[in-house]
Amino acid sequence: MPSYIVTCKQDATPEDVEASVKTQVREQGGKIGHEYSLIKGFQAIYPEGSLHALETHEHVEAVEEDQEVRTQ
């Protein structure tokens, strides 16, 4: 399964993220990977066919494919 970075909206509470967004990831066959402290977000290993449901979740700001980031 591909890996994605899920960024939650600023007004989403920790309870919203845990009880709603992460629960949806698990219920649709995904797994929670790394949890970030600098942004309100986490890594989700998630089935490709279910991505639209996650992208349109009320507490999700953005979903992007996890990839290596480099500086010059």
Automatic annotation (TrEMBL):
Molecular function per GO: endopeptidase inhibitor activity
InterPro entries the record matches: PBI_I9 (IPR052471), S8pro/Inhibitor_I9 (IPR010259), S8pro/Inhibitor_I9_sf (IPR037045)
Pfam families, A to Z: Inhibitor_I9
GO terms, biological process: vacuole fusion, non-autophagic
SUPFAM superfamilies according to UniProt: Protease propeptides/inhibitors
Domain Inhibitor I9 positions: 3-72
Family according to the record: Belongs to the protease inhibitor I9 family.
Name under which the protein is recorded: Inhibitor I9 domain-containing protein
Species whose genome carries this gene: Parathielavia hyrcaniae
Lineage: Eukaryota, Fungi, Dikarya, Ascomycota, Pezizomycotina
